[in-house]
Design brief:
The chain has 28 helices and 8 strands. The chain has 718 residues and is α/β, with parallel strands linked by helices. Strands 1-7-8-6-5-4 form a 6-stranded mixed sheet, with helices on both faces. Strands 2-3 form a two-stranded antiparallel ribbon. β5 and β6 form a beta hairpin.
Length: 718
């Protein structure tokens, strides 16, 4: 995503089950086991390695080499039983409720389940075989029911409520933890009566099944490919792109070339292929994922999710799903988020009109008898870039060799924040042989490990995202960080260099910003680690700025063959073109975010997804040359979990802060200003959710973020 939205699937993405479990373990407890499960004997780690404590160096590492799908049912059963017993002891404690006997053990409860869930969440995102899909369908509703059982426990909530009533006697961190936990329990239904709790749990379990159904259908469509047997159809494609398509065909045991139905494979075709028919075919296949009226069509699943969300919100006392979801965000209300989006939307639309005029003029001059269509946009955009700046992506790719850009990201993190990276690939287990691992320290102190899984493959969901296998905490026993980045860069044929685009390089820096956030965290209570959804993308979007600094480009944007640095003339062209094509980037993202919010403010939740998308875009005046970045039938952010539902606006909300934050470095005279970096890390990056994030931003900047910085960054009129 460059900035405003992931111009490539930059998704905090669902930061996986472990992030949810470890960073919000207290706020939304992971759940309980079936009646009587608390009497099950302790797990037999020797029999099931998934239940063992993570051992080895670096505070223990995940046993990826021992993970098998058939081990998870027993592991989940035992881990759920253990956690149920831990929460039962807390709820049944005969002593008066105190922070020490209630909140501290809640922070530590469920450690074994967190580890098992971390392994499972990573496998279902990265190595999703039919066996894992079957497991997810079976266990998602069970895990949801277990979570509800703890949230709905009246004895546990009575203890939380009693401590909340007397919280003024606690210190500031304890008060915030108690308040956030109490509020979260209430939002999740702790005050409902027994019948309402049973109904809510049923809704949650139905949603869990529907999320799994949506994900498996979309993954199936993303596993398809367009076969090309006539090389002439590939005219215009760089050799590196053709090599990737050839490798994909070989992997599928097909003749010719295969264009896989994922963004990383389709985007280069839309950008470079001179065969308009091929562009249209690839575009239609990609944009119709989940919307083909076949077994993998997601529309009915989406309609079911939307109705269940609305019914759940009503049961919990909210008018809409968006009102419920936004209680714990910086924006607070759908109206506030919508106001920001609609302030930017006219600028984006106007810029798209300018871009289309420029592209249509080029097509006309070339004698092409065509009107710009969505499958023409990227292709003619490249021609417009070349005409205006004498710059095209093919010129840049030789300077963006993957390993060099990775090293550039590590260099920037070291210079800004003092993080030190030593590669240890091959010394700890990984789940895929192409993964790389670094040991991270700061001033000689252990920080943790950083893992990279960079390449697309069958069974891996599309996009780019960050995971936290294990979150930092200072509460004894203290924990160091295990963080990862996951991308879908196209893997070339053996021996070929991995050359990525400028957008891909921005994605790499973006996702690494999430990892930096995790590695700089310094909190005591894990329940104060997670941040509001509309803050989550802020650290990652800020980190994108350092890719295009002269220091990083001079040192690491070197030609993969000659090793020569990028010529100054090319650097100047990049700088001059920084706001190029921002109409497309902003409007395609923002239309998705606006549709998401409107979708989740329909009170009864009765929606025909295709019709709603079509009518809402018409109401917005969506340019006909564009589609949403994520059409509803494939909108993974919204329908594979609740994570980004009524929350896709968060990229824009975060970018308002991100643009204003980088302005602070510029005002200090350098993107490397150490005093500004130290303040940024200390006040905003290391503190999790220990203080209100809006207050923390004001402490850092001395005021609220200025939207003018965002508009300037996008190159829009002020």
């Amino acid at each position: 995503m460059p900035a405003m939205m992931p111009p490539h699937e930059r998704e905090f993405p669902l930061h996986n089950l472990l992030l949810v479990a470890s960073m919000t373990a207290l706020i939304v407890p992971a759940g309980n086991a079936p009646v009587g499960a608390q009497d099950v004997a302790a797990p037999a780690e020797a029999v099931n390695p998934l239940l063992a404590d993570w051992d080895g160096p670096y505070g223990g590492v995940p046993p990826w080499d021992k993970v098998k799908p058939e081990l998870f049912p027993a592991a989940f059963t035992a881990a759920l039983a253990e956690r149920a017993a831990e929460y039962r002891r807390i709820a049944d404690d005969p002593g008066p409720p105190t922070f020490a006997n209630t909140f501290v053990p809640m922070q530590l409860a469920g450690a074994r389940l967190q580890r098992v869930s971390a392994l499972f969440g990573v496998m279902t995102s990265n190595m999703n075989t039919p066996a894992y899909q079957a497991l997810e369908k079976t266990w998602s509703p069970k895990l949801s029911a277990a979570q509800d059982a703890i949230t709905f426990d009246p004895k546990l909530f009575a203890r939380i409520a009693a401590i909340h009533a007397g919280r003024s006697k606690l210190d500031a961190q304890q008060q915030r933890l108690v308040t956030r936990t109490y509020d979260s329990f209430v939002r999740q239904g702790a005050k409902l009566n027994a019948a309402q709790k049973a109904q809510l749990s049923d809704y949650n379990q139905q949603l869990a099944r529907a999320f799994s159904d949506f994900s498996s259908k979309l993954l199936a469509d993303e596993g398809t490919a367009i076969t090309v047997t006539d090389e002439a159809q590939l005219a215009g494609l760089p050799d590196s792109v053709k090599a990737v398509a050839k490798a994909a065909a070989i992997e599928r045991q097909q003749a010719g070339w295969a264009i896989v139905n994922t963004r990383s494979a389709v985007d280069p075709v839309l950008t470079f292929a001179s065969d308009r028919a091929l562009r249209e075919k690839a575009w239609r296949a990609f944009m119709m994922r989940g919307d083909n009226g076949d077994a993998n069509d997601t529309n009915a699943t989406i309609a079911r999710i939307l109705k269940l969300r609305a019914d759940r919100a009503h049961l919990l006392g909210f008018r809409t799903h968006a009102d419920w979801r936004m209680q714990d965000t910086m924006a607070k209300t759908p109206a506030a988020a919508t106001a920001l989006m609609m302030r930017v939307w006219p600028f984006a639309k106007a810029r798209v009109a300018e871009e289309v005029r420029d592209m249509q003029a080029i097509a006309d001059r070339e004698g092409q008898k065509l009107t710009i269509e969505p499958w023409d946009y990227a292709y003619y955009q490249e021609k417009a870039r070349k005409a205006r700046y004498d710059l095209d992506q093919a010129q840049l790719k030789p300077y963006f060799e993957l390993n060099n850009i990775i090293q550039g990201s590590l260099y920037a993190a070291n210079r800004l924040y003092g993080l030190e990276f030593r590669e240890i690939t091959g010394t700890v287990p990984v789940f895929e042989p192409n993964m790389r691992v670094w040991h991270v320290t700061s001033a000689g102190k252990e920080v943790g490990l950083f893992y990279r899984d960079d390449f697309a493959r069958s069974g891996k969901r599309s996009g780019a995202w960050a995971n936290t296998y294990r979150g930092q905490r200072n509460l004894p026993p203290a924990q160091t960080v295990l963080s990862s980045n996951n991308n879908n860069f196209a893997k070339p044929a053996p021996g070929e260099p991995v050359l990525i685009s400028l957008d891909d390089a921005q994605t790499l820096f973006h996702e690494f910003g999430h990892a930096i956030h995790a590695m700089l965290q310094n909190v005591t209570y894990p329940g104060l680690a997670g941040t509001p959804r509309d803050f989550v993308e802020f650290p990652s979007q800020v980190n994108e700025h350092w890719l295009l600094t002269h220091d990083v480009l001079d040192k690491y944007a070197r030609h993969y063959q000659t090793k020569a640095p990028m010529p100054q003339a090319l650097l100047d062209k990049i700088e001059a073109s920084k706001t190029f094509n921002q109409g497309y980037a902003t409007a395609s993202y923002l239309s998705s975010a606006i549709v998401d919010m409107k979708l989740h403010t329909v009170a009864d939740g009765v929606i025909d997804p295709d019709r709603f998308e079509r009518e809402t875009l018409a109401e917005l005046g969506m340019p006909k040359q564009l589609v949403m970045r994520h059409r509803l039938p494939q909108f993974n952010h919204l329908f594979s979990s609740d994570a980004y539902s009524a929350g896709y606006y968060s990229y824009l909300w975060s970018e308002t802060m991100d643009a204003d934050t980088f302005s602070a470095f510029e005002e200090a005279g350098s993107p490397w200003d150490k005093a500004t970096a130290d303040r940024f890390a200390t006040i905003l990056l290391s503190t999790g959710n220990e203080t209100d994030r809006a207050d923390a931003y004001r402490q850092f900047r001395g005021r609220d973020p200025d939207i003018q910085a965002l508009l300037s960054k996008r190159g829009f009129a002020k």
